[in-house]
Amino acid sequence: MSKDGRLFATGSSSGCVKIWTATGSCIWTFEAHSDMVVSTQFSTDSQMLASWSHDRRIKIWNLARGVCKNILECRGESILALSFSEDDRFLVAGSYDKNIDLWDTIHGSLLRRFEGHSDGVSALTFSSSRKWLVSGSILRGEIKIWDLGHGECLQTFIGHDDSVSAVAMPSVGSRLASSSCDGSIKVWDLSGRPMLIRTFHSRVLPTSLAFNSAESDSLKTNIGTLCIDQQGLIDTQPTYAFFEDVTLRGWGVDSKSRWILKGGNRVFQLPKKYHPSHYCLQQSTLAVGTCSGDLLLAHLPSRSLHNIENSLTGRAFPGYGWDIKYEQERAMMVLEQAESPE
């Protein structure tokens, strides 16, 4: 989903990429790749989309004109992470072969290759100043901080007990957030040597992180927004508590992916048919993919659900996207409101 919550992208096993609006309208269909689309990534300004396929190509799409802007030929193995710089001038791709490639999005040229991880690179983010690049690995939670200009590794530390699933830095300040397949989200101070500030735990896999654009004391995740600086939230010993046990701001999803939360309280219950296999939350828009191949959009303040349901049985690719067919049936349904939080 785009950072402004207005657009989202889906990729199929046939290589097709679709761009949707938050009201459920398909505005672009790209016959993008010759093999399955593995991942997509919107640019910071939501004007471009990068798509990656098993055909070993990254394509950058101009969403205003609906055309392919650049084709990046990848030399390595499967891409595990994509990230645009804040000004969208650069794109980095982390691969299973332990390398990171830095691309110029205007000319489509490869500028630099970063080498040094012990295993595949699963998470990437730029600092707002474009001075640093932060990367996370699928081995032992390894995190590296790179000098973007010279390509040198400045810091290496072990942040988690399992693969790093996402990393994020705020627009202002020296904080770093990282999440892992071990269920933890950690916040670090990078003003000197990396120092742990907060640790949160969840049974829901944290897959996306972003600092609040206005302040660095809150962290947006795929489940909800965490209050970083609230006293008493740090865990000195891992407890793997649910996210409901810590303070959440705004909209979120509960640990079993069955309830939509607001401020940590249950508000709407998703019908059993629409329990998600994968979802993305941005501001007040929730995109849900189900195991049956259905794709849903929830506009949370209005308590309505836009449902785009396959007329043919679709296939789900957990963690990658959904196989959406061309024929669509559209329906509206009202989410059930909880009588009272439990």
UniProtKB/TrEMBL annotation:
A family per Pfam: WD40
Alphabetical UniProt keywords: Repeat, WD repeat
Transmembrane helix listed as a keyword: no
Keyword Repeat annotated: yes
Family matches, as PROSITE patterns: WD_REPEATS_1, WD_REPEATS_2, WD_REPEATS_REGION
Gene3D superfamilies: YVTN repeat-like/Quinoprotein amine dehydrogenase
WD repeat coordinates: 1-20, 30-63, 72-113, 114-156, 157-198
InterPro entries found in the cross-reference section: WD40/YVTN_repeat-like_dom_sf, WD40_PAC1, WD40_repeat_CS, WD40_repeat_dom_sf, WD40_rpt
UniProt-listed SMART domains: WD40
PANTHER family xref list: F-BOX AND WD REPEAT DOMAIN CONTAINING 7, WD40 REPEAT PROTEIN
Protein name: WD domain, g-beta repeat domain-containing protein
